[in-house]
Each structure stands twice: as structure tokens, then as C-alpha cells.
Amino acid sequence: MPTALTCLPLPSRPVLAVLAVLALLTAGCSSASPSRPASAFDARAFDKGAAAPGCMRHQQRSPTAADNGGPGADTARRLAVLRYYTANGNASYCDGKPADATDLSWMRNYLDQGADRSHVARWVPAP
What pLDDT score was predicted for residue 74? Predict the structure, then answer.
């Protein structure tokens, strides 16, 4: 006795080919778009699967509008900043220099998200 599955027609080869091409074309798509500029935050020194580094790298660029919240903000990028400074915020910088103005702008961004000041207290003392 035939089942419901054996009665369904199989897609033709041209249909399968079109579906395969569409899958390949969309595989390279990302969530970045002109309306969502890339974050300036560099978390290379901290990978969520790796142990915390012994020192931090200086940030090269200041936070962008996408990093500061609001309608164009990306939650994943903001969480990366929170994760990075919560784990490493009181660490030394790898070059032995203190936090510079760009680093401090990221730490203020971290605090503006409601984070605990104790995680960056070495560089941003309480007012």
C-alpha cells in the first residue's frame, strides 16, 4: 500500500539546480548593511571560547553610533564590549602604557550600558 510520501512528486532537476544556486548565493550574506555600520570595537584579545588574556590591547577607534545604543545599535556588538571589559577591564595593557582617550571612551561606553564600575576601576575611578 503506498504511503503519503511515496505519492508526492519529486522536484525536477532544474528546480533542484535553482534551489542549490540560491543556497550558495545566500550563504555569503551577512547581517552587516549600510544601515548598520560595523563596530569599531576590537575584541581580538578576547575570544569568548578562550581563557582571558593576561593583558589588553589598546582600542584603535572610538565607539560609533552603532556601539552607543539607540535604533542602529547591534546587541551582539554591545554584549561583546560588556563581556570584554567584565573579564579584562582591570588588566594591564600589553605595551605597559596606561589607558588612552580611546580606551577610556570604550570604558565609558561599557559603564553607560549599566555595567559594574568595579570591572574597570583601575582605569576609571569612581567620581
Answer: 82
The residue ranking higher by pLDDT, 19 or 50, is 19
Distance CA 82, CA 88 (A): 10
Distance, CA of 32 to CA of 35 (rounded, Å) = 8
Q: Kindly write down the DSSP assignment for every residue of the chain, as one continuous string.
A: ---HHHHSPPPPHHHHHHHHHHHHHHHT--S-BTTBPPP----TT--TTSPPPSSBPPPSS---GGGS-STT--HHHHHHHHHHHHHHTTSPBTTSPPP-HHHHHHHHHHHHTT--GGGSTTTS---
Query: Can you give the pLDDT at residue 68?
Result: 82
| For residue 113, pLDDT beyond 60 | yes
